[in-house]
Amino acid sequence: MPAPTESHPLQSSESPEPHENLELSDAPGSPIIADFHDAIGANSNDTSGAETSAAIEPLEYDEDGDENQSLLHPQPRLAQGRHLFQNTILTNSKHSTQRSSSPTYTEDSLDSATEADLLLPSPSSASSIREYFKKRWGTFVTRFVAYILFGIVFILAWKLVFLPRTTLRRDLARLRHFQISLPDLERTLFQVPETAKVREWSHYYTSGAHLAGTNYSQVQWTADKFKEYGFQAEIVPYDTYLNYPRDHSLKLLGVNGIVRYEAPLKEDVLTQDPTTSDPNSIPTFHGYSANGNVTATYVYVNYGRQEDYDLLEERGVDIAGKIVIARYGGLFRGLIVKGAQERGAVGALMYTDPGDDGHVTLVNKYKAYPDGPARNPSSVQRGSVQFLSTAPGDPTTPGWASKAGVDRADPHERIPSIPSLPISYRDVLPLLIELNGMGLNPNDLGESWRGGMREYDYSIGPSTMDVNLYNDQEYKITPIWNAIGRIDGVIKDEVVILGNHRDAWIVGGAGDPNSGSAVLIELARAFGELKAQGWKPLRSIVLASWDGEEYGLLGSTEWAEDLAKYLDANALVYVNVDGAVTGSHFHADASPLLNTVVKDVIKRVSDPKGGYVYDHWLQETKGRIGNLGSGSDYTVFQDHLGIPSIDFGFSGGDNAVYQYHSNYDSFHWMDKYGDPTWEYHVTMVKIWGLVALQLSEIEVISFDVGEYAHSLMSYFSNVKAKISRIVGESELDVDISGGFYDCPEVRGSLIRECKYIDVTAIDDVDLPDLKLGWWYISSSLRNCSDALDKLLDAASSFDAKSSSIKKQYFTDYPWFKGYKKLRLYFQIQELNSQYKQFERMFLYESGLDDREWYRHVIFAPGIWTGYAGATFPGLNEALDARNITNTKRWLDIITERISQAADLLSEK
Ligand SMILES: [Zn+2]
């Protein structure tokens, strides 16, 4: 290597000036530059013009910013540290040759210089060299970090540019670690349920007596199944007031009390049906029937409805002091007893008339079960005679939970005080035959009083002979047990509850309730399968197996009263299946909020008859989803807590007569006549499961407030039509601004200023007698009508908003519109909270008149029907009672609730 000379290009090309230029262009005035000057400071002061001009010779910088020597003047590369030193040293040496005696280094001598020499340059420049080295190292690190950061930002920006557009739905699914899409969940739900499995579960439940508060092993088994299928499960007990049969008899007495006939009060044992010979068979009796031993003459009272009793009264037939014989049908059996008791009757017998079995009867040449599909003449409908429409649940704890040690009320406002017995048509016939030709008959009272027995002419009596009715029940407070299973969802305050009762009046109960229980277990198994595949529901799902439903909805009512606060805050919906399969026609009753969900689901589920369930349902029911009355476990949810509910299943059809609450509702009957292929059971698993998924898995709650508002409109038209019937059509749509109607009340003043009406006489005055008295309620009617219009408007904008949000939920957005998704997320939360509260708006804290447990102003069981749902119950009852003051009061209560609901929907 040649010895460097002063004119070596290295000297000029690596002079400080180009560095300065570069650094200035990179970062003008940066401290690094100042430091650099400091480092060489004193020397550069003396830099000559020649050196300055040499300094502008080109330098090349590699990408990393390290300086390189000129490509035109290649230079052997030194180790970096040494190289830097060399520049400095050489520069220094250049100056030093001019003005100091400091040692000079040539490249050769540098090569041979020791490390010590390098680290210890001349005392005058050593510290500045060290300083310079430090600064240069700092510069290098800073640049390095800056480039790394720049690289990261660049990569992120690159990624953002190419980030795919996504929907909020997909983002949330990712965030919540959802691995399975809804269509996949539904596919599994369609595939998992098996006929062999539901048959197995049905067989389990119908193999031993399971009257309320007995058979703990079944609740344990149910809870274990829930656990096996991935649910958290618990057994929840309540101490309830119940009766168990001890003894009973029914005797027809001749002259001097001689027994002419004693009814067996037993169902026949059938060799083909093992359930009927079970040693634990449960006697025929009524839940909550009063104990008693009464002897009296008797009267046939048709169905024992209010209109039947009223007609008898009208026709001068007094049932006071007598035993009534009623046929089942039309109303809840407790209300037959209540009606009789209130009219002074001393006992009641109830039987199922074959005339109410439709086409499939012995008269029509069908064979009786077990040889054919007709009713076995010995079949008896057991059942509760609680006054269901007053309050369900434990009659000693109306409105609060039956826990150990709680206060208990006298139950007798809610259960009968006269004894009653259920009986088969075969066993009651000897009594009825005695009435032939006695008293009024269907020719006097109407053909609707005639049933289907040929031996009896349906004369009503009263009898000349006495009957002795003896009923002995053991009453006690005893535990019942609910099995509750739960899968926690991501959203914990919107809970979907699915329930079915487990207890039955008989050993079997293959239809009521255990077709529902078998379906519940199979649904749990399907959910377990989903869970095993990694499913976590969006909303929590609760499965309930209730005890004590048959006595009066005990298990569900006590549980919901117990957890009322929690349910009020968290329950989204309750979906009930009681008898899932007792026939082949699909039926559904629901809060109108849920009509659309039910219809959507049955459009997608095949019917074992072929086609879809929806097609058959549409044909059979004209597309009618009924109102929820009472008679099963949805009652406390819908009517007491304002939680929208559904009740559905398959019943009716013309295959076989369903022998409700009798020993013949057995596994054998189901296997042979009810659902021989078990396909209806599997169909119900799918329907129930799909409804649950529809409600639990879709971000925007699938409620339909528009449908609700329209339903209210139609109920209100019925009310107006009823008023119109009562008052007279011409009085309704009148101009209230003049003439008779120009009364102070209409102008907002006090009613008592009106010259036509004496307000003290308004109570309980018959509307027709009041003549144009309807005006008293006209402003209230108008307000109610206005409120409904307001609700309809609010509902339609709300539904529009909801569909727009749903649409946006499925819309792809680029990342930089993330704020829109965030806003959408909060909109959905707000929307869902409005949906959840909507049905609660119709609760009236003080409850319905004389039955304050029922708090829903739109839906309740009819006070004299029990099963069938009444709409605007308070209002309709006031109208039925021709109580105009109360009619107005209820109109105002309803108006307030409707306005409240409209306001809720209008909240932004
Ligand atoms: Zn039931």
Q: What layout of secondary structure does this protein have?
A:
Layout: H1 9-13, H2 16-26, H3 31-44, H4 49-55, E1 60-61, E2 67-68, H5 80-99, H6 107-112, H7 115-119, H8 123-161, H9 168-175, H10 182-191, H11 195-205, H12 216-228, E3 232-253, E4 259-262, E5 286-287, E6 292-296, E7 298-300, H13 306-314, E8 323-327, H14 333-342, E9 347-351, E10 383-384, E11 420-423, H15 425-433, H16 442-445, E12 466-487, E13 491-501, H17 514-532, E14 539-546, H18 549-552, H19 554-562, H20 564-570, E15 571-576, E16 585-590, H21 595-602, H22 613-621, H23 635-640, E17 645-651, H24 667-674, H25 679-697, H26 705-727, H27 767-770, H28 775-809, H29 818-838, E18 859-861, E19 869-871, H30 873-880, H31 884-906
Parallel strand pairs: 5-10, 7-8, 8-9, 9-11, 13-14, 13-15, 15-17
Antiparallel strand pairs: 1-2, 3-4, 3-12, 6-12, 12-14, 16-17, 18-19
This protein binds zinc ion (ZN).
Zinc ion (ZN) binds at residues 501, 512-513, 549, 578-579, 632.
